[in-house]
Amino acid sequence: MPLLEFEDLSIRYRTDGPDVKASEDVNFEVDYGKTFGLVGESGCGKTTLGKSILQLLDDNGYVESGHIWYDDVLPEWKTDTGKVRPEVVEDDRYPVRDDGMMDLTALDSDDIRRVRWNNISLIPQSSMNALNPVYRVGDQIVEAIRVHEPETPEDEAHERARDLLEQVGIERERADDYAHQFSGGMKQRAIIAMAMACNPDMVIADEPTTALDVIIQDRVLDAIREMQDQFDVSMLIISHDISVMAETCDRLGVMYGGRLMESGTTKEVIENPANPYTMGLQNSFPTVEESQERLLAIPGTPPTLTEPADECRFAERCPFATNVCMNDHPPMYDAEAASDGRSRVQQEADVGHRSACYRLDVLEEMRERAKEEETWQQTETPSSS
Amino acid sequence: MPGRETNRGKLDTDRRRFLMGTGAGALAVGMAGCTGGDDDETDTPTGESTPTETATPEPVDEGEDVPRGGTLTVGLSQPPKGLNPLSTSSSYSWMILDHFMSYGTALDPVTYEVQPSAYADWTVENVESGEPDIYFNVREGLTFTDGEDFGIDDVLFSYNYIMDQEPGRYLSTVDPISEASEADNDWDVHLSMEKPIGTWDSSQLQLPLLPKHRWESVDSFEQKTPGEDGELVGLGWAADLSQFESDTSAAVNLRNDGEYPLTNLQWIEDHDNLRSGGPFLDTIQFRFYQSEATMNQDLLDGALDTYYGSVSVSQIDQVREDNRIGLVQGQDDGISYFAYNLRRTPFDDILFRQALNMLWDEIYWTQRLQRDLVHDGDFVLPPGYAAIRPETHADADLLTDPATDAYNFREDSPGVPSYEGIRSFLENGTPITGESGTFVGQDYPGALQDVSASVNEPLHDYSFGEVKSDVLKEEGVDKELYVNGQTIPEILGRPVTYLMYPPETSPELTQADENWSQNMIQLGIPVEREVQTFNSLIGRVYAQEDFDLYHMGWSNMSAFGTSTLYGLFHSDNADDHREEQTDTLLNNPMGYGVFDYAGDDERISSARTEMDSEKRNSMVAQSLEKIYLDSPYMVFGYDKVQWPANTTDFAGFLQGIAAPGSSNLSSHFYNVHQQE
Amino acid sequence: MTRISAKYLAQRLIISYLTILVIMTLLFVLLHSMPGSFIQTMQSPDMTGEQIERLKEQWGLNEPLWKQYVDFMVNYQTGEFGWSPHWNVPVWNLIERRLPRTVILFGATTITGFMIGPLVGMYLGWWRGTKRDRSIFTGGLIAYSLPSFWIAWLFIWLFSFELDLLPAKYMRTQFPQEVYGTGFEWTAMMAMRDVLWHLALPLLSLTAIGWVGSMLIMRTVMQNVTEQDYVFLARAKGLSERKVMIKHAARNALIPVATGAIVGIAFILDGAVVIENVFNYPGMGNLILDSVLNNDHPTTQAVFFMLAVLLVICRIIQDIAYTYLDPRIKFGEEES
Question: What is the CB neighbour count within 10 angstroms for residue C201?
């Protein structure tokens, strides 16, 4: 049962020239209680997707088309029993579709503000600097609570803040400290505690472990997992680090050039990648299970998202690209079916294992060759570090 | 008022002008600070009498009853500097103090004769002994402003208190007095003098008369801050100081019941121009300003009836257009001049100085640059003090007698100096010494009085030859002046240095400087101009005497001449650098009197101690003419003073006196009254 | 709670004290190297050398230089500023009378300027790049580049001459009896209203320019702060835009602006000289000008001394204020 569903989402950034196509027709779902990982190189549009959920795009960013469906509605659109009121579903003026899901992209600024943190909270990229230096850490958690639950008394909110800190392993009295008195890991955990403050359904974690050393990374991941178990939240983790994803996520989506290239369960994507990009990406990271002798980088640079060519986004760097790849970006195909020899079964809905690649007909051959170093050196584009 | 026209006053005034030039809002005025109207101006909007060169005082009709009451509001461009009559020398302070202070004798503001005031009569005996005795009688029936009776006790207290306390302002006045006591003859008071003082009746008899009951408990005169502690009491025509805020305003109520004895004296009643029975106004209010521009604006806006000072060139058109305000014509009490350093060759030579004087284009200055708002200058005493000018003593026309024009601009055609004439004047070596003759094409009738210059021969030989100096080469001059066979740069090590103010403080004067130095260059004298701010000029000139020639935009002079002559032209007040380099700030930087080739020490000293005013005035007049011939100064202008006043609502202003809006402003306070 | 330790404060005070001593010494040297002694303003041409000597003695000028220096240092530290030869009153009287006026005018200007400037700067920084930002920013820059006296004249012309709304000189009505009738007595309320009414025009003129400086700083800092992650997080937390801007962005951007304002107070006299002249406002600016131009050394010395002390005090306050405004900054506390 999906909690959040991306439907054909396209996001643009206005610039002086043509708009930047930060994401294009993205479809995926985050299920209740599950963790979805969005992985890809920097600049692939994954952070944009994360921000778009809560309408937190930069001033020049906008949703061009598509929807983000969320399985809840604003309180006043519900009946006393907590059901969505039928007239809300029927009336076109409300962005609620028949199954009771609400389109987050269609909410006005006051309404989306009520969704923020209360329903969906966020652990921002570089959360080391996400605490305001001039306020006590505890007060910043209290602030979040009191915005969405103004009826909560001040002291109760403070107690809750301390409880939350304690749960992420920070002593209660440190709530009175300022951010600069915290270590990097502590700041990260304080943000995690803050993210849970309003008991949200979902937490978006953007690069939660970047800039932390390996040991701290583990602790933070542990904290995230614990919180998830305890609060039973869904998570959307955004990271370029596929090995972190492998440890944490139930499902993975691989982004490239604003497009979703592959999605499936973590096991499927990691163990049986069905997209050349995923294969390349894996080579460039140490996997947890087997320590590779050497890491292979994908030669070339990520594509520019301003007026991208019609061809498959990855074609330029893909060792397996052929003429067929040059016409259009491929739709999502069912990778299971491809393994069975039915290489062109389209699957737009986020079910099972999917991959956007015209060469699924030679899937096994690609998997074999992708493990060889020479494969990646054949491409003519100069290899980047 | 004794001691008012001191050097301190001069510096104050000049600095004030300097400030005026640099202060926000004021257009640079420089020496044009006090100027008068055009001679041929006939259509003054207020219907004033047509201003003439020598505006004369208008007679008043004593029989006429003038209305009493009213408030006159006066602007002061600076706040007063305290109201302690023993310590302040600020003219602004004295604008208020003058209402409270009266003296033993008074000066007639028109004739500058000494007249009775708090002393009924006086005499001097034993002058020949060298230690004269002064006797005087104290007028009866006078009261202080606080209502207490005034008597001999107060007089004796005042003399002894000031002799004991020695306030700097009156030090030189009480210094020659050895004792002040009750007289043992028919007179009231006896002053024993250590030496004769020429101006005794206007100095020793014009000491401030202090109320004993207010001052006897004051241990040190400086501690007293009248005004701020409500303690301003004196013998003047004021009733009280009803308001005093040190930096912004003051109000003085006047004793205008017609019963104030000192304005009902016979000499005032007999006076053609002064009205007895004053003061006539209820109150005089003062507003203090931080800038002249603001003050002038308030005059035009109607917030002021008049102000201390006179209208500057930049503002005169505005004031003339104002229907409420009229211009009171007056004479200057100061001079504008250049001074030469007599220690330096060739400035030590009378012939050279006179030649430079003849290169100064006074027509360019008075007519073109100053729009005929100044007179051409001659003697070092302004026409405001006509009584002691040489013309008066020789029955000649003030300012216009040919004997006052010996150094007129010698020109071949308008604006072009007679270079050849002046060159031969230098080469032939006959200076103007007082003998009649023709000099560079102009007749000189001979001195007005029996005086002649200190020397009748030049000190140096002059010739003109090949140009060596770069300054002259750059200007394409064909001849250079040789003094005793050497060029000036060979003597001085550099060209002549001409010290001037920054051009922005006095643009007109800068133009005149340019003109004069260009004339010198064309003659063959290499000149460079050096810009100095007023304060550094003071240091260069008065402390170090390091100058060839400098100019002074305007400088105040004293009414009797003796202190001016002694302070500015006596060797006592010059540093003699021949033996020792000193840096005192004495006021005779030229060194006039130090050298036998230029000086008049003897006559100046005698005038100082001559107790007969007629003899003294005649000696002063002689000295003035001798200095004119010796030319340590070249006086280049006296302002034609125009003082703005509300002539629509008030009358009784004194036309034609010296400095009507400044040193004689207070004479108006008991003469001015509301219009019928 | 302050994060400034007693030890640090003590150190700071000692250094400040030494700084003042050094400044005093420099002042002494400077004034004694000026050409001419201030005695000259008290001399008259007919004074004898003996009399001049006596005058020097009276003013302590015949003492050896080191003695004069020691006297000066001791007197000043015991609050004895001497006597002004120009104004004929104790120097302290002058300062006592004039300093409050300048503080009232320029204090009010500082307050209004630092109320308006940072507020506008906050909005402009927040709306950076918008049309509103660009036009107000440009307008501010134009005002900033105008000379203060020019603006003052413009306002005097407009509000005083043309509209006759506000008085253009003095700090209160000079002859109230003329305006309100004889027998008029000031009440505290009326006096206050009168002063405020007179203050309006100089205040307006000064503020017209004064707000820009802090606006420029605030705008720039605000732009930087807006990019900070904690501002993003505050927004993600669901706070209103207003609250994000004021509580999270502006609060941080204000730190350099506010601390700058404190030291700015010490530079009050900067504009005082010109503006006090234009508005005929007898404050410290005029005093400093008059005393310098009239060789009134005792007053000059005292005024510059007051300025130095003011500056040093402001620096200490600035340090303390920093620790209050920015919890990251500590002075002299041992790292935990």
Answer: 22
